[in-house]
Design a protein that fits this description.
5 helices; homodimer; alpha+beta; 236 residues; 28% helix; five-stranded antiparallel β-sheet
């Protein structure tokens, strides 16, 4: 099989420093994790917070800690650091080659969509508190066997807030289905969702928005890996 | 301006676990770093070592430590851990938005090529000991102002060893120039170099090979960011 992962990310309009952080890490026993956090509020403080959360989670994952435990470690440490007064959201999208599983972990009211060839698209159920608010919070963890055709999509709430300035809203589920029908690739879904959000906000996003998509498809189990990053470089 | 980064990576033939590790990290005060390490020997021990080096460097960079100091920290810590008996190579390719500079840092006999529109392609001069061998080793650090047209290419020695089974060798500099002339993008250079190495090895690479390319070009200084990862998923 083959994994395609795609990320699309934009900062709130006129804010140089977005509040979202997203990192990809190779897992010590094979596979990758995309770790996505949105810090409460926006600007430099939010960025510092989401970066702290992602670093904490990535450091745990790099040591072989499982996703749920890594997320709980971040919750507990953030709670102790700020006495429950500061919070962030967290999504971990993992392809775990050792367990041959897709593992989806989240803290906070984040939507994660999963699509399988048999069951179509659905939004993962359940409400989960934000990370850092409660001493004994637990993340929601969903585990699915790695299968060809599997699609998973996580995003920060900027995608939900898109259009709010003009009273419009994106139906994320419907948008994923349309984009997927037009071109069934991770990149088309991630870039297409961001494009639609930007259109609703007339190119001036009301919030930081990050979208991460994983797609498992047929393919040879060996061969080269590729990564590509495209980002604007502000002038001095 | 705009940054395109591309990575292409393949494991030694018939070795499931390659010895190279490559990670990308967003820098705390803006920009990204690609951190690439090749552990001595191959297989699981080499992978553990290169992962340790990359984690050490990434952790330092995430805390705001500058590249040269992060590389020295990894050297010193590895030296103390193994008494100078274990070594790795290291390249850090950085776009530092705070300093508005491209920073190229390396330990070990690794080639890094830089191309500017004015001066063409050249290989960074100087020999640098491998990381972990000496108590007081210093990395080579090259700093260039961020300018449109700038290209930087770092790779592990698998690219140099390609073809050695059949007595052939890749002229990396000439290959970069040809690929760049045909299609001046980071992706074309990274993927093209790997393709040529694989061709010399008849599809059975004699060593782990990782290639990282950064390209700064004209472009708007704001807008979305994109990342894409493609990797094989071995069957159970």
């Amino acid at each position: 099989m083959h994994l395609s992962a795609a990320v699309a990310k934009v900062n709130k309009w006129a804010v140089r420093q977005g509040g979202d952080t997203l990192e990809a890490i190779e897992r010590p026993d094979g596979g990758i994790s995309l770790v996505l956090s949105d810090g409460q509020r926006s600007g430099a403080a939010a960025k510092q917070l989401s970066r702290w959360v992602v670093r904490k989670v990535v450091t745990e994952l790099a040591e072989g800690v499982r996703d749920g435990a890594a997320a709980r470690a971040a919750n507990d440490a953030l709670y102790v650091l700020h006495g429950g007064k500061v919070s962030a959201t967290l999504v971990i999208l993992t392809v775990d080659l050792a367990a041959h599983a897709l593992v989806l972990t989240r803290f906070g009211d984040l939507s994660v969509f999963v699509r399988t060839p048999e069951e179509g698209l659905h939004r993962l159920p359940g409400e989960v508190p934000s990370l850092g608010f409660y001493r004994h919070a637990r993340p929601a963890v969903e585990t699915l066997p790695l299968d060809s055709g599997l699609l998973a999509c996580g995003f920060t709430d900027g995608l939900i807030h898109a259009g709010s300035r003009t009273g419009r809203q994106l139906d994320v589920g419907a948008a994923i289905e349309e984009l997927w029908a037009a071109e069934p690739t991770a990149r088309a879904v991630a870039d297409g969702l961001l494009e639609r959000a930007l259109a609703l906000d007339e190119g001036r996003p009301v919030d930081d928005t990050s979208i991460a998509v994983l797609h498992i498809r047929e393919g040879e189990g060996t061969g080269p890996r590729h990564m590509q990053i495209e980002m604007p470089v502000p002038d001095v």
